[in-house]
Design goal:
The complex is a heterodimer. By secondary structure, chain A is mainly beta. Chain A has no helices and 11 strands. Chain B has no helices and 11 strands. Chain B has strands at 3-7, 10-14, 19-26, 33-38, 44-50, 56-58, 64-68, 73-78, 87-95, 100-103, 107-112. The chains are: A mainly beta, B mainly beta. Chains A and B meet through strand 5 and strand 10 of A and strand 5 and strand 10 of B.
Chain lengths: 118, 113
């Protein structure tokens, strides 16, 4: 199992350019998440999805769009990049707890994408 | 609303010394709490999680954490630090039916000889 993978690993954009970050998981997880990590601020949730075809806003959704056309993939798009979007982006996934015996599932994280917007 | 506070953005210890990383949370419902570790240029890896089964939780790499409801704390400890423990540590609380995580700002642990 590759777990959670992210492409690309690094990217440099100019202000106003667009791009899409791809997250893929091979664990058949229902839930997927996009976070951004900035120094001194921990991880903040951008958008998340509770299943194929569904998405929801997180804490900092402005300037981003997402799509979950396939269960294993979760795409994060920046339509018009701004320097404030310079960050490290992490994708995560988790399965849905099926009862008390399964406990509380944790989120599994990808290796991250370092994005710089000039 | 739930929130997490990690006291101390940087902690430095000697190799072999006790590691104590502090985490306090606020939650209006019984919380689900997690500690993650991030090594340089890597993603986050789960260290341990509290799910109400036991107040003292043991995790990987010799770490453990104790849930104290009266203090709303979930501090992370390790009896003897190793050089390989140098990393950033994040405390998180499950929110919204634990489908979402609220992270603290992180504590960077340095271990010196």
């Amino acid at each position: 199992n590759a777990g959670v993978t992210q492409t690309p690993k690094f990217r440099v954009l100019k202000t106003g350019q667009s791009m899409t970050l791809l997250c893929a998981q091979d664990m058949n997880h229902e839930y997927m998440y996009w976070y951004r990590q900035d120094p001194g601020m921990g991880l903040r949730l951008i958008h998340y999805s509770v299943g194929e075809g569904t998405t929801a806003k997180g804490e900092v959704p402005d300037g981003y769009n997402v799509s979950r056309l396939k269960k294993q993939n979760f795409l994060l798009g920046l339509e018009s990049a701004a320097p404030s979007q310079t960050s490290v982006y992490f994708c995560a996934s988790k399965y849905t707890a099926g009862g008390e015996d399964l406990g509380v599932p944790e989120q599994f994280f990808g290796p991250g994408t370092r994005l710089t917007v000039l | 609303a739930q929130s997490v506070t990690q006291l101390g953005s940087h902690v430095s210890v000697s190799e072999g010394a006790l590691v104590l990383l502090r985490c306090n949370y606020s939650s209006s419902v019984p919380p689900y709490l997690f500690w993650y570790v991030q090594y340089p240029n890597q993603g986050l890896q789960l260290l341990l999680k509290y799910t109400s089964a036991a107040t003292l939780v043991k995790g990987i790499n010799g770490f453990e954490a104790e849930f104290k409801k009266s203090e709303t704390s979930f501090h992370l400890t390790k009896p003897s630090a190793h050089m390989s423990d140098a990393a950033e540590y994040f405390c998180a609380v499950g929110s919204g039916g634990y489908n979402k995580l609220i992270f603290g700002a992180g504590t960077r642990l340095a271990v010196h000889p």
